[in-house]
Amino acid sequence: MPGRIIDLTVTVDINTKSPPSTDLKVELTRYHRGPGFWQVTAVAQSLHTGSHVDSPLHCYERGGTTAEIPLDRVIGEAFVLDCSHVEPEQPIDVRDLERVARGLQEGDILIVRTDWTDRSWGKFPEFFTRSPYLTPEAASELRVRMEDDLKRIERDKISSEFALAGDVTVRTDGGVLVAQVPGRKKVYAGKTLITDELSVYEVTLASVPPSDANPYGVRIAAAQPTHPPERAKTGGAA
């Protein structure tokens, strides 16, 4: 079975609004020119509309722009902290994170899952004003983890890549879909390859009501390696 891409983005149209701080709509202006058919569309919207990456400049006067964020900061192995039980306006504290953080490894990209988008996307401004949120203590805990990782990455210039190394298989375990994803992970220090391993990851898929943002009705509930990594075989002498 070939690998499947799970789209986590939301649908943006002329009814989509930005946060209440700007309260901007998406405006589409179409232009036509003849002879024959020719069309181009101009878009006017807030850069914080729909799915996006916040730059440090969004909250810090001397922070960097989105263009200055290296791709290896947003591409890598993710660890999902499942907080989908939270209610509107419910704080998520350090204890909530600790309860779902088993299996978290150094260098993982942390994703706090609340399912808030599936429940309220399109309901503006409630989507922004009533969402669950991290307490300052929880945000500080995550920030400490990220800063430690960033210092290590900057010091050692660590980067990694992961690619499928076989067919993805899916089974049903107690009514839950579980995918086995074989992959090859390479870790570099600068340009030097320091690790080349084959691993199998177990990805638990949860069913959720289909929506415009998630038409397949599937969410990743957990992901973790199931077998000890094996050093990949390469050609040439040892």
Number of domains: 2
- Determine the fraction of residues in helical runs and give it as a percent range: 10-25%
Mean pLDDT: 80
Beta-sheet strand percentage? 25-35%
Radius of gyration based on Cα positions: 21 Å
Note the gap between the termini.
34 Å
User: Which descriptor suits the 3D outline?
Assistant: globular
Query: How many individual helices?
Result: 4
- The strand count comes to 12
Sequence stretches where pLDDT stays below 50 over 5 or more residues? 232-238
Topology, element by element:
Layout: E1 27-32, E2 39-44, E3 78-82, E4 91-92, H1 94-99, E5 109-113, H2 116-120, H3 126-129, E6 133-134, H4 136-156, E7 158-164, E8 169-173, E9 176-189, E10 192-207, E11 218-225, E12 230-231
Quick tags:
alpha+beta, two-stranded antiparallel ribbon, 4 helices, globular, disordered C terminus
Account of the 3D structure:
The chain has four helices and twelve strands. The strands form four sheets. Strands 7, 8, 9, 10, 11 and 12 form a six-stranded antiparallel sheet that branches. The two termini are 34 Å apart. A hairpin with a 6-residue loop joins strand 1 and strand 2. With 238 residues, it is an alpha+beta fold. The C terminus is likely disordered. The protein has two domains: 65 residues, no CATH class; 166 residues, no CATH class.
